[in-house]
Amino acid sequence: MTNLNPSAVSILHAVLGMGLLSLVMAGWMGATRLPAMRRAGLCLQDAAHTVDLHARLPSAARRV
Fold first, then answer.
1. How is 1-32 classified by DSSP, letter by letter?
2. From the centroid of its chain, how far is CA 49?
3. What is the pTM of this model?
4. pLDDT tens track of the chain, all 64 residues?
5. Rounded Cα distance, 18 and 10, in Å
6. Which value, in Å, is the radius of gyration of the alpha carbons in the chain?
């Protein structure tokens, strides 16, 4: 493997960090919102427009 430019390595770290953060947030949102939607009797099609979920989900699930 060739040596990379230090600025390229720092950009690569930033890209990987943002990808990891996106995966963590998607997991957190799924773990919080999907059970709340089941309790409210909603399906995934009902979540197509999140404005419609505002009145039907608890605030803890909406904040994620």
1. -PPPPHHHHHHHHHHHHHHHHHHHHHHHHHHH
2. 16
3. 0.69
4. 568 888 889 999 999 999 999 999 999 999 998 899 899 888 888 888 878 788 888 888 888 8
5. 12
6. 18
Length of the chain: 64
**Distance (Å, whole) CA 38 – CA 47:** 12
Supply 29's token pair: 């949102």
Tokens 């999907």 map to which residue?
34
Amino acid at 22: S
Can you read off the two tokens belonging to residue 20?
């990891």
Cβ distance 40 to 57 under 8 Å? Answer: yes
Range 39-57 burial, b when 16+ CB lie within 10 A, else e: eeebeeeeeeeeeebeeeb
